[in-house]
Design a protein that fits this description.
The chain is an alpha+beta fold. Helices cover 12% and strands 27% of the residues. The protein is built from three helices and six strands, in the order E-E-H-H-E-E-E-E-H. It has helices spanning 29-33, 53-60, 139-142; strands at 7-11, 15-20, 68-72, 91-94, 100-109, 115-124. The strands form two sheets. The chain has a three-stranded antiparallel beta sheet, with helices on one face. The N and C termini lie far apart (35 Å).
Amino acid sequence: MSDLPKIKEYSNGEVTIVWEAKKCIHAAKCVKGLPTVFDVKARPWINAEGASTAAIIEQVGKCPSGALTSFMNAEGKPKADVSEPATSNVEVEVLPNGPLVVFGTIAMKGPDGSVVQEKTRHSFCRCGASSNKPYCDGSHRRIDFQG
């Protein structure tokens, strides 16, 4: 089994939806907000033709974990800039009975010392039950975490 993160891309020709499975906390905001695009019972579960580009971009922007992102095909895939320093323009939100969600550019060191830096959202586990620590995997619902 590969240690590479599962990242999939789905495009309607104008916009590409990027899904990073390891970041997903299964909050289901995508499924509830735009079921014509996001349907967990369908394969593939993302239908980039299911709504307008504007609707897709708006819904993807509501993903609390940053597992879903998008980019305009005409502009090309965004490049990660690991040389850019972390900014102090970071917001942290505590979701009731759920994860800590960090919005903004952060630099985080992994156990091997490598720096992960992204301009996105991160959902960090608060309940201790995640099998994808430090990230939330939705286990707080299974264990009925209160906090």
